[in-house]
Structures are given as C-alpha cells and as structure tokens.
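[retry 2/3] Probable tRNA sulfurtransferase: previous attempt timed out, resubmitting with same input.
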Amino acid sequence: MKYTEITVRYGELSTKGKNRREFIGRLNGNVTKALAAFPDLHIYPKRDRMHIALNGTDSDAVIEKLSMVFGIQNFSPSLKIAKDVETLKQTALEMMQELVPVAKTFKIDTRRSDHEFELDTNQINLLLGDYIYDHIPGLTAKMKHPDVTLRVEVRRDGIYLSSQTIKGAGGLPVGTAGKAMLMLSGGIDSPVAGYLAMKRGVEIEMVHFFSPPYTSERALAKAKQLTAKLAPYCGTIKFIEVPFTEIQEEVKRTVPEGYLMTVQRRFMLRLAVKLAEQRQGLAIFNGESVGQVASQTLESMVAINDVTSMPIIRPVATMDKTEIISIAEKIDTFDLSILPFEDCCTIFAPPRPKTKPNLEKARFYESQLDGEALMARSLAGVKVTEIRSHDEFLTTDQIDIQSVL
Ligand code: ATP
Ligand code: MG
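[retry 2/3] Probable tRNA sulfurtransferase: success.
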C-alpha cells in the first residue's frame, strides 16, 4: 500500500493548556529531528494528533524512526482519498482485502471533523461495514477486540483511511521534564537508566569518567558508541568526558583500601553535580541497582550520596539484573555493554571494598586530600562533544571481539 500520511496519536498528556502546548511543541521538534533524513515530509502538529504528510517518502523507513520517539501512544499509516462515497467504499474494500489472510473479524471506526460531509459517522460505519461484509466472505463485524480496525477520518481536505495501529514508544517527549546528567559507564545498567530517563521526558547529557593510561581509548569509544545507540530517542546527545586519572591516583595513594571505592565514587558524584550546575541540569541519573555490587548497598549509597543534595535518580534501582538485561537487549545496547574493555572502576577496584562503609570514616579519609584543587584540574580538562545516532567510534573488528573470545 502506498500511504500518503502517518497519523500520530499523542501519549500520556496532561490536558492543561500550557502543558499541552509544551508537550506538542517539544514532540513536534523531536519528531522533526528524528525524521530529518526525509526532506519531503510535511509535519503538522494539531491539538489532538499530529499529521505527517509523506509526499512520496517510503512509509516503512519513516515508521522505523518514528517508533523510537517518546511521547507517542501509537500511529497509523494512512491513505488520503477524495471525498467521494464510491471511492471511499472501493478503497475500504481494497484495504480490507489485503488483510483478509490474517483477519477474521473487523470494525469500522469513523471520525469526522468536516461536519458538512454528506454522511455522518454512523452512516459511514454502517455503509462500509455492510459493503465489506457483502464482498468478503468469511469476514464478520465485531465491535470488541476485532482483528482489524479500519479507521476512517473525514477531514476538510479529504478522507483518510488506515487499517494498522502501530504502538509508539510511549512516555513523554524528551525535554519536557527538564535536563539532567547521566553517569554513563561502559556497563549494562547505565545505558538502560539513560533510556528510562529519556522515556520520562528528561533530556540527558552523558558524564563519563575515564582514566588514561589505565583505561584505553577503546573504553572511551565504547561509552561514546553506547551514547550513539541512545541518540535516536532524542536526536543528539552531549557527551562529557571527565579526566579522572589524577583523582584516582591520589585516592589510591591516600585512602585505605576498604574506602577507595567509596571515596572515588564521592568524587565522581561531586564532579557530576558540578557539571549539572554549570549546564543547567536539575538532577543526576545513574545505573545503580540496590544490592548488585559492593558500591550499591544502601549503606554505600548513604556514604556516597552525602556529597550532594541534588536529586539522584536511579531508574534501575529495584530491577533484577535479568530485567535490566532484557531492556538492554530491546534497546540494543547489550552487545556493546558486554565488550570487555576495562573501565576506570574495574582497574582501581580494591579486592574487598567495604560493603557497609561508614559515612564519618569516608568523610575523614577524603579530608586528607586537596579535593577542591583535584576537582578544579579535572573540570579544566573536560571535553564536550555532540553525538548523533550514525556516528561510529568502534571499528567492526572491535565490536566483533566477542565472537573471537
Ligand atoms: P553499569 O552497568 O552501569 O556500569 P555497574 O553494575 O557496572 O553499572 P558500577 O560500576 O558500580 O555498576 O557503577 C554504578 C554506576 O556508577 C553506573 O551505573 C554509572 O551510573 C556510574 N559509573 C560507574 N563508572 C562510571 C564511569 N566511568 N563514568 C561515569 N559513570 C560511572
Ligand atoms: Mg560499571
């Protein structure tokens, strides 16, 4: 079927005037960015739905991109025809005939914004229902849970028909909930946390700590590649590399082994908060999951969280590893995440970190360091880049390493 339009239905949307305008405005911007590769599209956001005129563009390619945009409940590729009853009957029949192999029951669902059209919604439902029933043997009408719903929309400029309703990504348009920093490591959990943050409308910027020469260029490239995987959900993502070598060396030199991890994490969090403040971020997101590893006990969170009063949101906090992995697989970050490129935490990880660190001790050990100066030097070396979905940072050989191990 050569579709002419995609009709987009909005997701969870507060009906209040100002919020609705902001929601629709953002969604329009995000859809426009997501579909930037298709110059012939015409996007019209309306109060209760959005219309994307295809102008000859292949609908499958557009659908693939559109299904990643948050704030969309569902959408339907549709066909525009002239406002003529005969054409309507014939087109409806043809659309249903294409679906007969899979459909046994159907329903017609008509909406009419042009009230001057010669038939009202009930008349259209009945007329098309009867016509299809008479012409396709074995197909029966069913009002509740039919196999196919043929949607008919009578608008001023024509009649739009669609037989498919494709599930959208749900959530809220990215940006409607403000901006936050995501602490992105190379692991499985933090990209999933980032995806979930965006799903709730939060614009994220990636904060990644790296420690050359202890961590390699490919570990950094891996974090960037993970960012590129998440970019289609929002267009582009800022990636902030924070040099962490000097802090890790100083912590390692000064702090007893049991507290190395706690103190390192306190520095990471402080730096993420500083960056958030500089960049108008309102919160920190991370990939911590309660009880998963030593740094993720509640006691440990107390000892680390102590450095800030900025909200720290942990979208995967209560998920089991298997639940996190199934999301990672769905968003296609899993295969990248398991590439064995060492990150800064694994290298400086003590063999036995304290699982229940004491807050006072953590504060005390940390006070032995000149934290302000260390942080200032780290922040002076920060590098920000903007990452798009098709950017490539790892070579195919590096990505394929898994299969040779
Ligand atoms: P992940 O799968 O996200 O790496 P993990 O199970 O390996 O998590 P940790 O290494 O303890 O857990 O890290 C916990 C969280 O701390 C991460 O989810 C991430 O948000 C943050 N974090 C850890 N290392 C880094 C890093 N190098 N840069 C930025 N954030 C980090
Ligand atoms: Mg990690």
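[retry 2/3] Probable tRNA sulfurtransferase: Residues 260-278 form the longest helix (19 residues).
[retry 2/3] clearing retry counter.
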